[in-house]
Amino acid sequence: MGILHDDVVIVRQSEKEGDPSVVTVNCPDKTGLGCDLCRILLVFGLSIVRGDVSTDGKWCYIVFWVVCKPTPSWDSSRWELLKKRLVDACPSCSSASGFLYYRSALHLPKPPDVFLLKLCCYDRKGLLHDVTQVLCSLELNIKKVKVSTIPDGTVMDLFFVTDTRELLHTKKRQEETYKALEDIMLDPVISCNIEKVGPEITACSQASSFLPSAITDDIFRLEISNELPSVSSNDVSVMMDNTLSPAHTLVHIVCQDHKGLLYDIMRTLKDYNLQISYGRFYIKQGRKCDIDLFIMQADGKKIVDPSKQSALSSRLKMELLQPLRVAVASRGPDTELLVANPVELSRKGRPLVFYDITLALKMLKTCIFSAEIGRHMIGDLEWEVYRVLLDEGASLSISGRKLEERVWKLLMGWE
């Protein structure tokens, strides 16, 4: 089966502001493709307001209707970059005379090179978010971070990053990064350096493996909580039906919309190695979403085991109600903000979490004393944990509950 290269992904931009743009993907299928595509749309700040998925197990056809919140001014280069990233996520293909043909992926791609960006500069409110925004705009993916404020008013930022464009080893790309960082500084940069690091350096930079039991008991429990702001267990319904299709299990979901909703559903199904043969997603009035997914197991059969149905249903409910965990804890006289999210089995973390955390704190005019990102195994799940220690003076100017709600709502796309 062949298809023109330009037809693998087609992006039709909306003609009127507020109307959705349409992204069409037509390519070979693979388990987890929907998750990978939704992840890219989330990275680009796009919200999916409607979606259709259809596949015969070998070839798939996917249509997303997307909007950006808040609405930015996207030029043609931004849309072309989105298209390129979506094409890159499609299963491995070979090109011949302008046509693409399916080729099974025999080898997993090698892990991307990791670089250490060391930035020393004068501190100010909102600095960490501004630096994070620059790195995101340059398609530099933050894997780990250690931020420390020095008593003399300077700050040392250590970012372990990978480069989506795979060019950070070049002088031109490094100079582009230096220039972009200098442009956001109010005072001259004291020093800025980028170097490639090996796995042993990355391992040594791991955040502290210790998490207080009070924290793990609070934010890592798998039971569904009704204490989170603006959400309750009554907002999510997951029903399964094996009577409507001879070969598939229908999963019907009704829930509130949030940032990355479809990504969370697709990520869960990918982790369970389940394939979607047909799916439809749309937002009703307000934030109410209606989703129908016809799925099957890796062996091509429907899910008939009640225990497997129950496990999948419980996991989906948990992910839809609490795709992220947010808590505020006292650390001696200081206040610590903790945010955690499950990591995909492929070891990919959730996009833009650190960006949203720093944005929320910047909006609250709250200074950051130190920050770090680490990964922890809790039960049988790996979690990415963000720990942010607030400046002593700033931490006293806002209640922990208000801080928790503000960060939670921004992460969920409700603000």
Annotate the secondary structure layout:
Elements: E1 2-4, E2 9-12, E3 21-28, H1 33-43, E4 46-55, E5 59-68, H2 76-89, E6 93-96, E7 99-102, E8 114-122, H3 127-137, E9 140-149, E10 154-163, H4 171-182, E11 191-197, H5 199-204, H6 213-219, E12 237-241, E13 249-256, H7 261-271, E14 275-283, E15 288-296, H8 306-321, E16 325-331, E17 334-342, H9 353-363, E18 368-378, E19 381-390, H10 392-395, H11 400-411
Antiparallel strand pairs: 1-7, 2-3, 3-5, 4-5, 4-14, 6-7, 8-10, 8-11, 9-10, 9-18, 12-13, 13-15, 14-15, 16-17, 17-19, 18-19
Helix pairs in contact: 1-2, 1-7, 3-9, 7-8, 9-11
Helix content: 25-40%
How many β-strand runs?
A: 19
Q: Which band does the percent of strand residues land in?
A: 35-45%
Radius of gyration: 22 Å
Major sheet attributes:
8 strands, antiparallel
- Model regions low in confidence, pLDDT < 50 over at least 5 residues: 94-106
- The spatial strand order of the largest sheet comes to 2-3-5-4-14-15-13-12
Helix vs. strand class: alpha+beta
The overall pLDDT, averaged over residues, is 86
Shape: globular
The DSSP helix count reads: 11
Distance between the termini: 45 Å
Order of helices and strands: EEEHEEHEEEHEEHEHHEEHEEHEEHEEHH
